[in-house]
């Protein structure tokens, strides 16, 4: 690390006395445990290239409440849900300030930023503005048609590329869609001319550059006396990226002011509302304050949202059975040829579970935004000293084996029967923070992520470029203020095929297609009929009884029977299976003396090229794959 060697050469002769004073100064008593700091640098070398992983490993040694010395900065790292709850809920007021990093002080951004301001009257007024006028349910509902229009544009773009077999940069497509969704809400214009356009790429480069520079361990934060040197060029990089955004927003504001004069004060979007003095929004913002607010919303909103969408699609391409299950849910719930809408989200539990599982494994900000102790606070018999930086490692909490079974596995099913949510009350799962400093844009992000991921799955099948296998997909991370995918996700969309249905009626049965077999759940008292009367009349398909492999089956006194073919079931093999089910229906009705129609379910076996799909009512919580030979 060349910059550390340079720092040492400069620091030793210039600050020997100050360093000596720092070394000999007695540390606050009863700090949380942590690794022994080196002179001058403290524990800086412990951070590594991926601090969220390094500090998670250190927490396994020193505990979930750990202290570090990063240069001259005392840092407390929290890696458990229990301590996170105590800090962010019980002692919320004491930890509601921010440790302002040097990168954010460019153009005094921190003095007017809703993210970085301490809880002053100015911050409370900005928070009230966002909660009461920008991200309210009423405001978001009014813009639904706008978001739907942007989704249609995304579909059109993907269809054009699907027809030519072109590869899509999913992260860039998601970023452009999110950017235009937000810019139309705020400005009534598209900030990106087209998908992959120069304007879209330039905005993404500026935002991504901001997030990388802001997340970079910066010597200026750890050694304030050498801040003026900007040894790593962080301030220069931030000035460049802030300047690019500042120029964009300044032009928009100037145009808006002219438009407002022509319209005599009528408002149509969020920026109109902020600029119009006749609007009673509780705060009058200066030009630089408006631009700071826009930088906060657009930098955080576009980068974190598009990163989450890219991670969700990466996990689904890495786990094809999960993608198939999500697509089946969308097919079952949504009407034919209708794009997903915001009102559909509550009816799509598996899609919701996918987003939750993505946020658990890949939280947008692995340490949230740094908190600061306003006074000495006692936590679990240790003292968090006044002025200490407090980092909540939500990445580590989301992978805590004490909280999550198989924590590194992508398993949306874990959320299907769980009420755990990411709105700040379940501290094992706080990707957006908690308390008074929870992410203000969460309501909009929630809608955008579900809509875009749902649309990508509903309208297209996806395959990786160059024949890459799912298990070989690079899932590496790039650390920054936002935890991005190290390599962009590139995949080829294929239009979802129209289904051809073959229907059969099955008495009291629920059928799920699993890989090369069909699993049938039947009442235990009737399951013998699948073997005894009549026997399956087809080969090489075999039938066998499965014991105890389905929780729902056990609860309701059901048996599971598997019909399988190692080579994959074909249409020719399924048709006689349907006849067997029909024979079973007749057998039950004749021998048991009850109306079989009262317990009938209509099952659809769907032929779609080399896929079998089903429509199921009601569905079971069993995982299934569709692909056969």
From TrEMBL:
State its cofactor: heme
Q: Which domain of life is it from?
A: Eukaryota
Q: Which InterPro entries match?
A: Cyt_P450 (IPR001128), Cyt_P450_CS (IPR017972), Cyt_P450_E_grp-I (IPR002401), Cyt_P450_sf (IPR036396)
- Residues annotated as coiled-coil are none
Quick one: signal sequence residues? 1-21
GO molecular function ontology, one term from the record: oxidoreductase activity, acting on paired donors, with incorporation or reduction of molecular oxygen
Task: Cite the entry's keywords alphabetically.
Answer: Heme, Iron, Metal-binding, Monooxygenase, Oxidoreductase, Signal
Instruction: Give any Pfam family that matches.
Output: p450
Which GO BP terms apply? isoquinoline alkaloid biosynthetic process
**Gene3D superfamilies listed in its UniProt record:** Cytochrome P450
Q: Which residues bind heme?
A: 439
Please give the family membership noted in the entry.
Answer: Belongs to the cytochrome P450 family.
Stated name of the protein: Cytochrome P450
């Amino acid at each position: 690390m060349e910059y550390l060697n340079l720092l040492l050469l400069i620091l030793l002769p210039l600050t020997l006395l100050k360093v000596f004073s720092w070394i000999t100064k007695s540390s606050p008593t009863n700090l949380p445990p942590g690794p022994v700091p080196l002179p001058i640098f403290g524990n800086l070398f412990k951070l590594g290239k991926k601090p969220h992983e390094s500090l998670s490993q250190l927490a396994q040694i020193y505990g979930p409440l750990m202290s570090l010395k990063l240069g001259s900065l005392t840092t407390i790292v929290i890696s458990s849900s229990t301590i996170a709850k105590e800090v962010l809920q019980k002692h919320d007021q004491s930890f509601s300030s921010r440790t302002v990093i040097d990168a954010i002080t460019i153009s005094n951004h921190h003095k007017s930023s809703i993210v970085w301001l301490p809880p002053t009257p100015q911050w409370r007024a900005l928070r009230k503005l966002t909660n009461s006028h920008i991200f309210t349910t009423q405001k978001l509902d009014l813009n639904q048609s706008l978001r739907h229009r942007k989704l249609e544009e995304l579909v059109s773009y993907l269809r054009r590329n699907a027809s030519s077999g072109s590869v899509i940069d999913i992260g860039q497509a998601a970023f452009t869609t999110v950017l235009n969704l937000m810019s139309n809400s705020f400005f009534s214009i598209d900030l990106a001319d087209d998908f992959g356009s120069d304007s879209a790429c330039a905005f993404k480069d500026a935002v991504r550059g901001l997030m990388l520079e802001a997340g970079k361990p910066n010597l200026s934060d750890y050694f304030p006396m050498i801040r003026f040197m900007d040894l790593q060029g962080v301030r220069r990089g931030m000035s460049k990226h802030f300047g690019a955004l500042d120029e964009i927003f300044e032009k928009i504001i100037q145009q808006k002011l002219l438009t407002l004069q022509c319209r005599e004060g009528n408002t149509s979007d969020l920026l109109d509302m902020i600029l119009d003095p006749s609007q009673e929004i509780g705060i009058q913002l200066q030009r630089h304050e408006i631009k700071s607010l826009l930088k906060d919303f657009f930098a955080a909103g576009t980068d974190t949202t598009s990163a989450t969408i890219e991670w969700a699609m990466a996990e689904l391409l890495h786990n094809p059975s999960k993608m198939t299950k999500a697509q089946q849910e969308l097919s079952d719930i949504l009407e034919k040829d209708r794009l997903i809408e915001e009102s559909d989200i509550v009816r799509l539990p598996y899609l919701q579970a996918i987003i939750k599982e993505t946020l658990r494994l890949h939280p947008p900000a692995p340490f949230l935004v740094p908190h600061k102790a306003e006074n000495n606070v006692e936590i679990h018999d240790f003292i968090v000293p006044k002025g200490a930086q407090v980092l909540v490692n939500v990445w580590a909490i989301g992978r805590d084996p004490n909280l999550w079974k198989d924590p590194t596995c992508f398993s949306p099913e874990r959320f299907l029967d769980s009420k755990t949510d990411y709105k700040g009350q379940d501290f094992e799962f706080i990707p957006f923070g908690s308390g008074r400093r929870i992410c203000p844009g969460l309501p909009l992000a929630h809608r955008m992520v579900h809509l875009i991921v749902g649309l990508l799955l509903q309208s297209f099948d996806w395959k990786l470029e160059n024949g890459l296998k799912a298990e070989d997909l690079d899932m590496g991370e790039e650390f920054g203020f936002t935890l991005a995918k190290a390599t962009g996700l590139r995949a080829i969309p294929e239009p979802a095929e129209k289904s051809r249905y073959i229907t059969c009626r099955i008495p009291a049965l629920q059928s799920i297609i699993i890989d090369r077999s069909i699993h049938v759940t039947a009442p235990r008292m009737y399951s013998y009929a699948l073997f005894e009367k009549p026997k399956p009349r087809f080969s090489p398909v075999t039938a066998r009884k499965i014991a105890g492999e389905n929780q729902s089956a056990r609860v309701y006194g059901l048996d599971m029977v598997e019909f399988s073919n190692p080579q994959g079931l074909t249409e020719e093999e399924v048709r006689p299976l349907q006849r067997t089910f029909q024979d079973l229906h007749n057998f039950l009705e004749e021998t048991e003396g009850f109306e079989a129609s009262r317990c009938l379910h209509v099952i659809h076996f769907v032929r779609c090229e080399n896929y079998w799909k089903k429509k199921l009512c009601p569905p079971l919580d069993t995982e299934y794959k569709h692909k056969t030979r």
